[in-house]
Amino acid sequence: MGCGFCGAALPNIVATLVVDCVVKPVGRQLDYVRHFQDNVEKLREKKRELADARDRLLHKIEDAKNRLLLIENDVQNLQSRADETLSDMGTLEEEIQLNKRCLNWCPNCSWRYQLSKKAKKKIQDISKLLERFGRLGPVGYRDPTALPTIDFLCSKEFVVSESSKAAFKQIIEALKDENINMIGLWGMGGVGKTTLVHEVGSQAPKLNLFGKVVITTVSQKPNFERIQDQIAQYIGFDMKNEQGRRSEQELWLRLKNEPRILIILDDIWESINLKEKIGIPIGDDHKGCKVLLTTRRQQVCRAMDCQNVVKLDCLDDDEAWTLFEKKAGLNVSPNNDIKILAKQIIENFGGLPIAIVPLGSALKGKSYHEWQVAYRRLKDRRLTEIEDVNEENAYVCLEASFDYLKNMETKTCFLLCSLFPEDDEIYMEDLVGYAWGLELYKGMKSIKEVRSEVLASIETLKNSGLLLDCGERHIKMHDVVRQFALWIASSRKEISFGIVETLPMDESFKNYIAISFETNQTDELPK
Questions:
Q1: Rounded mean pLDDT of 339-349?
Q2: pLDDT per position as a tens digit, 394-439
Q3: Where is the signal peptide (predicted)?
């Protein structure tokens, strides 16, 4: 049967060779037949190389999409071409396997010639594709229309006061001055510096002062890589490449390409060399780049050579009362007795918005007796443990706000937030995990139920002014509120939380139910 099959195929191979030999040497045609098995094996090897290259490309594409990048057209075309080629390879493999039985019984020269020729052509096609993979550049780019803008960050709680209006005007005038490139805004914690610079950042582009506005938080323990990443995302620059992390010099060069850019550095505690530590061009390096910084310490403004220094003062008595009246709902309350008590309570605030907003929200809608209790607590409380006397009034008022939270679960959820690093954007799902692990909500049988409880607690805390929104499913704490929460957690026996620099190696912390420490400071947990 096999020989008859070969006999039937003989005219085909002769006809094929005759046609091809009109224009090509006979030896090359015979090579297809002789090297059939080698071509098939080489084709399979090239297929594996192409599949590996395609998979690596898919990983890069997935990573780029996770970083919200758009995929380059040539990358998409190369992926499609690789997919098509691999699909064609499957068809050719099936054809080889289908004819293999006949080839084993009788070396069908026609089939060997045709299949070997297809394999050789496919090897050449794959080799060209692999060359394109080798020349491939970055797979994605940032969508200019999707870059974050300062309008998204602008605070809805901007408190307009005489001090804030004066400070705002001074900053805007300084930004217009071509000879000023560094502006410092200073004032005590909780006075509203962050809110004010967000407002400046929102208005500056509308006044046609800058093409781009960038904002990032520095804090007491600066994470310069995080700061660079936050600056880079506003200008469509990626601090990472295939070789690793880009240098400060590369960010410096990229920022120099921005004709007019304002960089807001919030909450600076010590003098920072902006060029060496971050990569910000300033002064003669780039006249179009200006820096606006906020700090609690006036000496930081001097140390960083701010040409214009602005102070933000606390609210005066009338402004403090107006804000408290609004937050506590007293502007629509007919109860004069409550208003008299509120006037006495307001004396404890020291004009700090960070204290006024939470306590006003906590007392809104309360009875006269509840207002009396709040007044007695504020009057009798003396927080002598607090070193920074400027913030004592804020702590007193925040404690009253904390005590007015209805249940211990919400209070504990609030204190859990203080265990995250300063200025950290807290992912709500992390809180859910901690609450589940600590069995914070008794009687809950599933994470789904705990999640609902945690999200409800977060809403209560946000409505009380104790937590701030900062994007989808993320929250954060004002630094003064966080310090207060840490004080509460360490001073009250019924709530045993703490933050430590290094893990304790003894039993000194055995009464704590939760501690926080920097994970890169230790290799393993103690027994």
A1: 84
A2: 777 678 778 878 788 899 899 889 888 888 889 999 999 988 888 8
A3: 1-16
Separation CA 144–CA 480 (nearest Å): 36
Segments of 242-359 assigned E as strands: 244-245, 261-266, 289-295, 308-311
Rg (CA), the chain: 35
With the C-alpha atoms ordered 298, 300, 306, 310, is the resulting torsion angle positive or negative? negative
pTM check: above 0.85: no
Looking from the CA of 186 toward its CB, the CA atoms found within 13 Å total: 16
Which one-letter amino acid corresponds to residue 246?
Answer: R
Q: How far is CA 225 from the centre of its chain?
A: 12
> Under a CB-based contact definition with an 8 Å cutoff, are residues 358 and 464 in contact?
yes
* β-strands 261-266, 468-469 pairing: unpaired
Going by C-alpha positions, the residue among 90, 95, 2, 108 that lies closest to residue 51 is 90
Question: To the nearest whole percent, how much of the chain has pLDDT over 90?
Answer: 26
CA 103 to chain centre: 61
Does an H or E element contain 397, and which? helix 392-403
Banded model confidence at residue 289, pLDDT cuts 50, 70, 90: very high
The first and second tokens of residue 198, run together, are: 């967000």
